Amino acid sequence: MSILDVNGILVSTEVIDTYFCCDLEACHGACCIEGDSGAPVRPEEEPLIQKAYPLVRHYIPESQQRYIQRHGLTYTDADGEAVTMIVNGRECVFTCFEKDGSARCAFEKGCTEGTSTDFYKPLSCHLFPIRVSRIGDSIALNYQRWQPICEPARKRGRELGIRVYQFVKDPLIRAFGEEWYEQLCEMAEAYLQWQTNRDELK
Asked: Distance from CA of residue 130 to its chain's centroid?
């Protein structure tokens, strides 16, 4: 694994060369209900969540609504960062369920169905499987390999020829802007071509 510096943002080459495209029919939205911590929430997102929650509350099971009444919408994790509240140590309180049992973010459902909020979801969720961290003063983007839950996504990505950085185009533009994303694509194409040339010489 190497690192590309895209205008000051450090991008793991796993984000470039890993195939990935969510297959909800296979995973049923497990990322909403699996794990041991909530999704990271940026400071500017907390008031957006507070504003949007009443508009999407009707999508969320009543038991989770009661949990939110008692415990709130977010909490501070062991690293001192704000994250979405979770139920039973694993399930995000903003999870709603479709008729087929698949888990879905209530904010996303309200936004995409055009019935309520314009807050899509926390950026950390939108960027998945990319995780954002800091290395010194720099922002770093890394691919989170989640076994075995996301194996269907990797398989589908290979079948469709879609890589991580392409799959998360919209949230990357949301986070860093369209000009930055275009620069990422240029560097990704150059890196993949270099990788192909190197392999042919072996």
From this structure: 6
Give this prediction's pTM.
Answer: 0.91
d(CA 105, CA 96): 6
Q: How far, CA to CA in Å, does 49 sit from each of 54, 57, 75, 169, 186?
A: 9, 11, 13, 23, 35
Would you list the DSSP string of 70-103?
HH-SEEE-TTS-EEE-EETTTEETTEEE-TTS-E
Angle between helices 178-201 and 169-176 (to 10 degrees): 130
Which residues does 17 contact at the CB level (< 8 Å), separation at least 6?
163, 191, 192, 195
Mean pLDDT (10-residue bins), the chain, 202 residues: 92 97 93 89 96 94 96 94 92 94 94 81 96 91 92 97 98 97 97 87 69
Exposure of 15 by Cβ count < 10 A (0-12 exposed, 13-18 middle, 19+ buried)? buried
Give the closest residue to 79 by CA, choosing from 31, 134, 160. 134
Helix (H) or strand (E) holding 132: strand 130-135
Q: Which two tokens stand for residue 121?
A: 């979801």
Q: CB count, 10 Å around CB of 139?
A: 14
CB atoms within 10 A of CB 185: 16
- Report the C-alpha gap between 24 and 41 in whole angstroms: 24
